[in-house]
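Minimal example, chain plus zinc ion.
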Amino acid sequence: MCKKPTEWEKAVEFHGHQCPGLAIGFKAAVTAREKMGVRFSADEEIVCVTENDACGVDAIQVLTGCSMGKGNLIYRGTGKMAFSFFNRKNGDSLRLMLKSFQGEMSREERQVYILNAPAVEIFNFMKPGFELPETARLFTSIVCEACGESAPEHKIRLQDGKKVCLDCFKDYGRGW
Ligand SMILES: [Zn+2]
Ligand SMILES: [Zn+2]
């Protein structure tokens, strides 16, 4: 008999391994679903803003169906272990910020702890301090005067009087 994979098993399969980071994203998605009373698969108006690009985002994608391609997974790179969920339909929003861990735990112990502990032990809950960007903006395309590649207007910088893309912009460096 083949049994249906659990949501956790689906997340692990998509991510390629199991780890405490994946467990954080998994817990965040499960908790947001409960607290906001939404079924992600049926609710495309749910938008997730992730503040990190770590393992947990993969679990978010599997559980919520939010993806960059659909425009309902937005990366806001503060580097914090925080995930915010917005319900475009009713204006509801919730930000989950990972609490710092106390005590010594192995990776395996930590993963089990995250998956099984009450959500209030894992996250602080609050309203997001930022708004969602507008949907479906159309951008004017500009051709970079250094490399000739086109990029949207808001990604173009002025350098020595020339319009250049971020690849050609000298101060750009890491940051992206
Ligand atoms: Zn991982
Ligand atoms: Zn360029």
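The radius of gyration is 19 Å. Strands lie at 46-50, 73-75, 82-87, 93-98, 123-126, 141-143, 150-152, 157-159, 162-164.
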